[in-house]
Amino acid sequence: MAATSNNTSRSIVIIGILFFIFGFVTWLNSVLIPYLKIACELNNFESYLVAFAFYISYLVMAIPSSRVLKLTGFKNGMSVGLLVMAVGTIIFIPAAMTRTYMLFLLGLFVQGTGLAILQTAANPYITILGPIESAAKRISIMGICNKVAGVIAPIVLGAIALKDADELVASLDSLTLAEKAEKLDELSGRVITPYIIMTIVLIGLAILIYFSALPEVETDSEDENLEEINKNKTSIFQFPHLLLGTLALFLYVGVEVIAGDTVISYGAAQGIEFETAKFFTSLTLGAMIVGYLIGIVAIPKYISQQKVLQISAILGVILGVAAILTNGIVSVLCISLLGLANALVWPAIWPLAIEGLGRFTKIGSSFLIMAIAGGAILPLGYGLLADKLDPKMAYIIVIPAYLYLWFFAVKGHKIRN
């Protein structure tokens, strides 16, 4: 038992490192959106194609990712995912040299593809590494690793990419075309060194994971109870709680990305300088860390996973409405505090959605990874509404999403036939 406990702890540490990488790469988008909006001269809708290109890869690549995992297993699949991400970060180098927006988007898509493979392996791995009733606690630990990286990433890249951005934006209209191009080229080149470093780190981690002692977890067999329950099941579409959970995760990732990736641009739209606004995403993720700490202490000892999901959904509605009804820093802080509402949604949905899948676990996990495409669709919808209405009223998009999360917590996860 002691050996098993040590193996589990070691595995949690290794997966925690991977979740740190997920967070670091993912939450760089919150800086890339305003940064590329300036460097490539984009409107709101065009700038949110950053989130679209990154997250749509989960929809396109989740099923192929499950096939990769069938060939490689969870452990080697994680190494493959890291190497694919490294290809995506390399693409950023010629993109920055030529200030070509489509190349930036291609790099983001490839990074997202690598993350799709990693997430398809790591999320079910940590979920089934111990008792299902405490899965939300383990995922909360992973969430802290993810969001600590998310707090650090925008600050680091923001300090490099958005340095003196307010002065640059103010001066652009007074420059000649040649001077403007020169300034924007210099701005574009700022990301070259950070992405070279990221490429080296990702390749190093891929090698480390490949030679690590991370154990393989078997999901293709079922215990006797599940074998009896699932004996007539021939398709993943015969698990309605998974399908409803997939939609819940789609909407959740959408509102999580909106809260994290739009808040810097929204702060600027509310008249707050970039020098201050660049910290808002870190504040959002800091609020998520507080939520994860609550989950680690409280789940399942004091509160169940489904009850946490209900409370989170209600808090999301309250903060979304408050952001729309207030102005300035108060409104921006309401968006950042959505991080607290969002923190325990992912940890709660995963175990509720994949419970009882047995031999369908890998394909079920692929469905849930596909749902991360919500981070592509909903922020794009926000960007469209921000152009048509205004950046504040565009947050109306989060309200129905949180209401559906409440439905899944109350009833949706119980529907098994």
Question: Characteristics of this structure?
Answer:
Growth Hormone, Chain: A; globular; 417 residues; mainly alpha
Descriptive overview:
It is a single chain. This protein is mostly helical and 417 residues long. It has one domain (10-211, 233-414): MFS general substrate transporter like domains (Growth Hormone, Chain: A, Up-down Bundle), CATH 1.20.1250.20. It is built from 20 helices and no strands. The chain has helices spanning 2-26, 29-39, 44-47, 49-98, 101-127, 135-161, 165-172, 177-188, 192-210, 224-229, 240-261, 263-269, 274-277, 280-298, 305-325, 328-342, 345-354, 361-370, 374-388, 398-410. Helix 2 packs antiparallel against helix 8 (177-188). The protein is globular. The two termini are 37 Å apart. This is Sugar MFS transporter. It holds the Pfam family MFS_1.
**Highest CATH level, the class:** Mainly Alpha
Tell me the name of the CATH homologous superfamily: MFS general substrate transporter like domains
Order of helices and strands: HHHHHHHHHHHHHHHHHHHH
The number of strands is 0
CATH architecture: Up-down Bundle
Measured between the Cα atoms of the first and last residue, the distance is 37 Å
Please tally the helical runs, counting DSSP H or I stretches of 4 or more residues: 20
- Largest sheet descriptor: none
Mean pLDDT: 86
Shape estimate: globular
Which class of secondary structure composition applies to the elements? mainly alpha
As for the number of domains, it is 1
Helicity range of the residues?
A: over 70%
Low-confidence residue ranges: none
How large, in whole angstroms, is the Cα Rg? 21 Å
As for the CATH topology, it is: Growth Hormone, Chain: A
Keywords: Cell membrane, Membrane, Transmembrane, Transmembrane helix
Membrane topology: Multi-pass membrane protein
Function: Intake of glucose and galactose.
Organism: Gramella jeungdoensis
